[in-house]
Amino acid sequence: MRLAVIGFGNVGRALASLIERQRPSFPFRIVAIHTARHGTAYRDDNSFTDPVFGPPAASVDEFLDLADAEVMVELTPLNPATGEPAISHVRAAFARRMHVVTANKGPIAHAYALLRDEARGAGVCFRFESTVMDGAPVFNLVRHTLPGVRVLGFTGVLNSTTKIAIEAMRDGKSMQEGIEEARRLGITEADASFDIDGWDSAAKTAALANVLMDAMVTPQQVDTKGIGRLTPERMAELAARRKTACLVSRARRTGDGIHLRVRAEVVEETDILASVRGTSNLLLLHTDLMGTIGTVSISPSVAQTAYGVFSDLVGLLDCGSSM
Ligand SMILES: NC(=O)c1ccc[n+]([C@@H]2O[C@H](COP(=O)([O-])OP(=O)(O)OC[C@H]3O[C@@H](n4cnc5c(N)ncnc54)[C@H](OP(=O)(O)O)[C@@H]3O)[C@@H](O)[C@H]2O)c1
User: Fold this and answer.
1) Which residues does ligand 1 sit against, CB inside 6 Å?
2) For the chain, how big is the Rg over CA atoms in Å?
3) Which atom of ligand 1 is the closest one to the Cα of 11?
4) Homologous superfamily of 2-135+303-321
């Protein structure tokens, strides 16, 4: 299966290395890579774990035409305000009847229903497991293992950068030191204020609601406040009362619609929401037939994000039967 990759940063490189390691067992081959500043690389004796980039393609359309791939993998940075240019990249691939796998939550948070329908119209698959909780099953969990279940809401601690910043402040360090620590781990959005101000969580909340609850919302419709007002002093005060803070995403379906919220909440240290540390994430799905069911990802790194993309690629191998 030939892959054209747009965006080759932390996730793209980890994916290329994973594909290389799994090459004996799985038929995936990166045939072209397009980036913003590094340029474009096409096959022709190129090693795609360490590609040599040439001049950039004039446009994504030209890139996809020359790549001659069956799958477009979209790994550009999140633009939480619009979801672009990733949405246009996805559409350009559908227009060429290419399957799409993305770790970029922009398209799912801003235009999921439209893109899902466009994929169906083009007879291709659209997969995005890594957009929330890296490689831990969330969308595929519901798709493959919870038939007949209706998701009524969810509660999640979904942003690793804010968790690490909060933990740093509990240790008496500054918010900025926590952000730098998260950046060293490769998990921070290109602009860390997207994490701190809650935009990343709002995008994940919108993405989950769009896919699991047919919400048709954008991140702007999530009632969002980030962790910007937390300080080391406030965290010390909470710790003295055996409490802490978490940036929590909540969704609830009521008679008058779906309510979505992101807030820095004060919780007991023993609360399940506070039980995951470091980069670990947690999501509880509240359902009609299965009560509350959870998924936890312990200390994920970019390797798990790459696995989420890889798991979607493996899913494409029998995509025709599960669009
Ligand atoms: N890192 C994680 O652990 C993680 C986890 C879950 C989801 N994600 C999502 O995965 C995506 C990729 O994350 P990352 O950490 O790999 O990002 P990154 O390290 O910042 O890399 C982004 C890549 O996209 C390229 N790019 C930027 N704008 C582009 C454009 N308009 N056209 C073509 N290429 C463009 C950049 O090109 P240059 O190299 O030339 O600048 C770079 O290669 C993001 O949407 C992120 O939210 C990441």
Assistant:
1) 6-12, 34-38, 75-78, 85, 103-104, 130, 134, 186-187, 189-190, 302, 305
2) 20
3) 16
4) NAD(P)-binding Rossmann-like Domain (3.40.50.720)
Measured CA to CA, the distance from residue 36 to residue 56 in angstroms comes to 8
Look-up of token digits 């550009």: 76
* Best residue for ligand 1 mutational test, from 61, 134, 305 (most atoms within 8 Å of Cβ): 305
The pTM of the whole model exceeds 0.85: yes
Would you say 215 and 226 are in contact if contact means Cβ atoms under 8 Å apart?
Answer: no
**DSSP-assigned letters across all residues of 4-15:** EEE--SHHHHHH
In the chain, the largest separation of any two C-alpha atoms, in whole Å, equals: 62
Residue 29 alpha carbon to ligand 1 centre in Å: 20
pLDDT digits (tens, 9 = 90+) for 68-123: 999 999 999 988 899 999 999 999 999 999 999 999 999 999 999 999 999 999 99
